[in-house]
Every structure is written in C-alpha cells, then in structure tokens.
Amino acid sequence: MISLLTSLYVLCALALGLYTAGQALLLWRYWRTRAAAPAVPAALPDAALPAITIQLPLYNEANVALRLLDAIAALDYPRDKLLIQALDDSTDRTVQLVAQKLAALEAAGFRVQHIQRAARAGFKAGALAHGLGHTADNYIAIFDADFIPPPDFLRRTLPHLAADPRLGIVQSRWGHLNAEENSLTRAQKLSIDTHFVVEQAARNRSGWLVPFNGTGGIWRRRCIEAAGGWSADTLTEDLDLSYRAQIAGWTSLFLPDVEVPGEIPPQLAAYKQQQARWASGNTQCLLKLARPLLAADLSVTQKVMAVQHLCQYLPPLWMLLLLLLTPPLLLADALGGLPLAPLGLLALAPPLMYAVGQMRLYEDWLRGLSAFPALLLLGSGMSLCSSLAVLGALLGRRGDFQRTPKFARDWAQNAYALALSPMLWLELALMLYALWAAALAWELQPQLMPYLLVYALSFAAVAGWSLREAAVRLLSSSRPPRPSAPAKSRP
C-alpha cells in the first residue's frame, strides 16, 4: 500500500512539474515575442462596414443590464447596420427593465430584438444558438452582462475579420470595473491580467490555439457553423467552440490593446461558483476534445500546448492529493529519498508571469503585484472547490450552468448575493489536517513544513473569508435596505 501511495505522490508531483513547465514555456515565448503586434488593417469606411449582430446573453441581470445596453448604444457604428439582440432567459424584473430599455432604443432608431425562450435549455450556449437563428448577419459580437465595450470596439476589431477570410474569432483583453473593491478583486485582477497579457499573447504570437473567453469578442458566422455550432454538452461553451473551430482550420486573433472592462466577483462565494463552473467545463472540454485535438492537422507543439491549457484545472486536484498523501507517507518514512527538489525551481514561473503582466500594463506595477500573497492563499485554499468540480467532470457529471452573480455596487445588501456554503466545514477540516501534517513534518521532514503551513493558512483564510462574508451579510440585513434600482441608464 505504501508503495502505491508513494507512486501516486510522485505522479502528482511530476504532473505538477510538467504543467508548470508549460507555464514557463509560455513565459519564455511571451518574452521572446513581447515586441510583436498584429498588423493593423486599414479602417473600413462607413459604406463598407458590414451588418453585425450584438448578442447579449442575460439571466437575472437587473443590476447591470441597463448599463450594458447603454454601452452597446454608444458604439460608434451605423445604427442601420447594428442589431442589438438581448437573449433574455431571466425570471425576475430584468425582463421588464430590458423590455423598456429596448423600446427606447428602438424609438431612437436602433434595430433591436428581445428574445425570450420558454425554457432555459442549454443555458448560455442554447441562448446563443437560438439567437443565431434570428439573424442573417455574418458577424456576431458577444458581451456578457457585466462588460462595457468601448465606443470604438467594432471599428478596431472588424477590419481584422474583413482582411483575413480564414480568421474566425477576434478576442479582446479583459479590463476591470471594480479591481480595487477589496482584497479578493485585487487578487483576481492579478490572475486575469496574467492570463490575458502573458498566456493569451504568447499562445497567439506562437501560432498555438487561443481559447475564446466568452465575452468581448467577435465571431464570423461561417466559422461558428463550420465548427458545429454552439454546444451545451460542456459548461464552457466558449472554450469548446473556439477549439473546435481551430481544429477545423479557422484561426483566432487576440488583440491585447483592445480592452473591454468587466466586473470581478467581489464575493468569495460568487468567485467559488465561477471557478467551479470553469473547472468543470474545462475538464469536460479536455475529455471531449483531447482525441480530435491529437488527431488534428496541427503541429506537435500546438497539440501539446492545447492539451496543457485544457488541463489547467487539474493542478489543484494534484496539489490536494499531495497534501492528503503527505501524513501517511511521513509516518511510513517514504518521503525522505524522493528526488523532487528540482521541481521546486519551476515554481518560480507563475510569480514571474504575474510580475511581467503587471509591468506590461501599469506604471505602478509593484502595487498590483502586492496582491500576490492573497492570490497564493486563494489558489491553495480553493483547491477543494476546484477539485470537487474536476472530479465531478471526470466522473461524467454534467452539472448545471451556475451563473456568476453581478452586483455593480454593494454586494452584501444585494438579492443576488450567495449564501454560506457547507463546504466551509470541509475547508476547516483540511486546515486541521494540514496543521497535523506540519506537526509531523516538524519531527520527520522539516523541509516540508513551509509547504504544509501555507496550506493550513490558505484553508484558514478561505474559511475565515467565508465566515466574514456571512457576518457582513447578516449585519447588512439588519440595516434598512437600499433601493434595488439598477445602475443609472441614459434615456
């Protein structure tokens, strides 16, 4: 039994090392290509601008829906060539708010569609596919409810599609509307910036597959249809379709200088729900796409880096297994002879990626990098949440599309705020387990103590944050409620 546990420990450590080596390769490729930039095609005159549909998938977004519609109405684009398509699966007052706003926009000369389905079949993927059947336009832009595209978004992105007939997807970089709201949003900002500035740019400039991030992008209709259309058999329909499109021969373009800001979840419970959905969907895509990906007409490096990306939510599971295996292997004196120390050098790659991303975007980059300790604690402390989602996907559990609530302002007094999760007790149990493991390491393998204490502190931080949020919500409920009006909308 000890030999089996030791083998599993070594396999998890090696898998983590291989994944992190992929991250180091991304960092190296970014640094080598950091001066590269996509060619900027000639601007399209108004007469040559194509008709485009803006799809806005909505589900109970009363706090942000009007702000989004205002941003779409402010786009610098001829109104007769712009179709605003509200794909509204809402079950609350969002429906009335959107209907009233669309009526005002129609009266102002916009083409609008308020599309409601009898059932929320297929969740976001189903809504996007349903909306596609209500337009004949060749270009489809997609914005989630909490994103605000700049007025020149279409003018800066569409020329790329017009210039290259094999280009199927144009993706912008995510910005942030509430990055300084609290420690949680600052930590997420650091992670999101690194994904877009380093990872997405490195993949695109290296000719590797680039995932679509679900919002802030434009699709060519023929690309969607040729790749098989939107599918609801994973919880990350954006990743699924974008990989299928690139496997089919279409290309994807990432524009790091086109920024579309969105809301970062300011509540830990909301962030956990978002990450669990992404972890489950990413793993479902791994199971669905690994075989066609490996059989596709792609280079070995393209295949390897695509698989590495599809595995991005497996490391928390491997890390959790390492923690769980440590005490029994310590007691059996089975860890002393394992030559795993060189793998620790690879752990330098993620912090360097964070630093490079902040330096690229901000003059006061050290301020942004100060969120790294909080991000480290979050990443380790949420390994349970991500691992359970990954295990569910590996076991074939489909799961429901759990929408990430958007608040636009004080989340604690908002009806969309999420309740305290029972997962708290498991996180507290893992905190105690990590402390016990650290005590064993103190006696048997002192070099493991820092790693185990980080885990104990991480689970304590996540559990404590959850309890703090529950207390804040309780105190907020005892105060007179604020008016529940959404963000102000221009007439």
Q: How would you summarize this macromolecular structure in one to three sentences?
A:
By secondary structure, this protein is α/β, with parallel strands linked by helices.
Description:
This protein is α/β, with parallel strands linked by helices. The protein is 54% helix and 10% strand. It contains 18 helices and 7 strands. A 7-stranded mixed β-sheet has the order 3-2-1-4-6-5-7, sandwiched between helices. α3 links the parallel β2 and β3 (111-115). α11 (315-331) crosses α17 and α17 packs antiparallel against α18. The longest helix is centred in the N-terminal third of the chain and has 31 residues, at 2-32. It is globular and about 75 Å long. The model is unreliable at 483-491 (pLDDT under 50).
